Amino acid sequence: PVLVESLIVFTLVLSVHAAVWDRFSWCAVALAIQAFYTQFKWDRLLQLGGAVFQFRTSANSGLLPASMVIPLLGITMKERCRAAGIVYFQRFGIVVASSGMLLALFLSVIAVGITKPVPTNTCILTGVAGSVIIYTMKHSLTVSEVIEVLEVLLIFVYLSMILLYLLPRCFTPGEALLVLGGISFVLNQLIKRSLNVIEGRGDPIDFFLLVAVVGVVLLGLFFTVLFIFMDSGTWISSMFFHMMTAVLGLGVIMPWLYRLIQRNPLFWLLQFLFQTQTRVYLLVYWTFLAASACGVVFYQNAKRSSESKKHQASTITRKYFHFLVVATYVPGLIYDRQLLHVAAVLCLAVFIFLEYVRYFRIKPFGQTLRHLLSLFLDERDSGPLILTHIYLLLGMSLPVWLFPRSCAPKGTLPGAGALVPYSGVLAVGVGDTIASVFGSTMGEIKWPGTKKTFEGTMTAIFAQIIAVALILIFDSSVDLNSSYAWILASVSLVSLLEAYTTQIDNLLLPLYLQVMFMA
């Protein structure tokens, strides 16, 4: 399975390379070859228990598929913005690609360094790939951009040491690279923009995303350190938790956001949410769907009898939430993407805050949340945190957040790029859901070495093609410009990756589909 997964990733990388064909795409190919060999060193370390931190044990290291995501996103963003003539975001894409390559190289060097005996061939390959990438960066980046890339690497190193120690068995090395690399880049961007505030420059919804992500991460780090010295399950600790959340929110996060957007954040948010009648209708509709999701949770827990406390929700039951998320995102993508952007940020902040309440057993809801959510755990939730619902939200939202709006003057990209915001809906909401439901109920022919079925994968591809046809009918802004063969190939490759990967598919699949659509 690892070899087939690697072959699919190589095909994706070469497809992007063929579409872009510049020095950075050559670097991506070199990085992929190097990551392929280093991945086996990580896998061996995980099997022997020789890794520095405790990683998720039910999956392989995932170094190759994770290493390529951020570089490919940067390369395709650079190419789209170059075609649109937006130099600032073209340079931004180069910084994203360079940062991703450097983070992946760092993780590879760590694996090679702690492997005993030292793997000579892998060391040479890592050195050659690193030399090619650093040489390209030297001749492509300005001094300020080099400093920015090194800042991201430094933040990543410190975050890795802190979070991987505090959160054992929550990530594989590849997932840690994606999640912590993303947080590092967001934090660096927030610091950079906070130091260079120019009134009227920058979109407030982008600042809102940066501040919200950094705010909830800092909140979690603060309380993790605090509750080392006191019991988090008491009423006094719970009152202190709520009080300090309000203090940090109103005393740090709000002023920080005010400095960036140059207006009162609460007034701006209320004005933004209720600006048009369409937004009011969408908010009412989303509130109804959120209540429906809560109803599913309460109903499934009510069905759980006292004799079957170890009973877990079935795959089909968990996919109810995928259907609800599709029903949430599709109207937002069609009618108001900016509102969807902000609402997804708010939802992410609420999800992470509720996870803090559950993890720290904060009264009065901490123990209740533990009981309610335990029904929906699967093998990927082997650590102290429950992250699958957060990954689902991220998988649906990242294509919306990462869509290069400034490089799409008409609000959409030409050709297959018009489907970029729908990448999460197609890959996770439609493809992964249909594959799981049909595969678990009617699948008989299994892919070699996996539990996934041929019927599930084929049904997923067919369902995504139907979904693309429906998007063409209902979203007038989408014009595929005869790029149907590329779309079919992209959907097929990502569906095959879903069948073979052991990483968090909710996070990985939408990003690869976005890369392919942008290429």
UniProtKB/TrEMBL annotation:
Encoding gene per record: Dolk
GO CC terms of this entry: endoplasmic reticulum membrane
Chief place of localization: endoplasmic reticulum
GO BP of this protein: dolichyl monophosphate biosynthetic process
Source organism per UniProt: Atlantisia rogersi (Inaccessible Island rail)
EC number: 2.7.1.108
Annotated family: Belongs to the polyprenol kinase family.
InterPro entries assigned to the protein according to its UniProt record, in alphabetical order: Polypren_kinase (IPR032974)
UniProt membrane topology term: Multi-pass membrane protein
Location relative to the cell: Endoplasmic reticulum membrane
GO MF annotation terms: dolichol kinase activity
Protein name: dolichol kinase
PANTHER family, A to Z: DOLICHOL KINASE, TRANSMEMBRANE PROTEIN 15-RELATED
Taxonomy, superkingdom: Eukaryota
Transmembrane regions: 7-37, 57-76, 88-112, 149-167, 207-228, 240-258, 278-299, 320-335, 341-361, 382-402, 422-442, 454-474
Record key words, sorted: Endoplasmic reticulum, Kinase, Membrane, Transferase, Transmembrane, Transmembrane helix
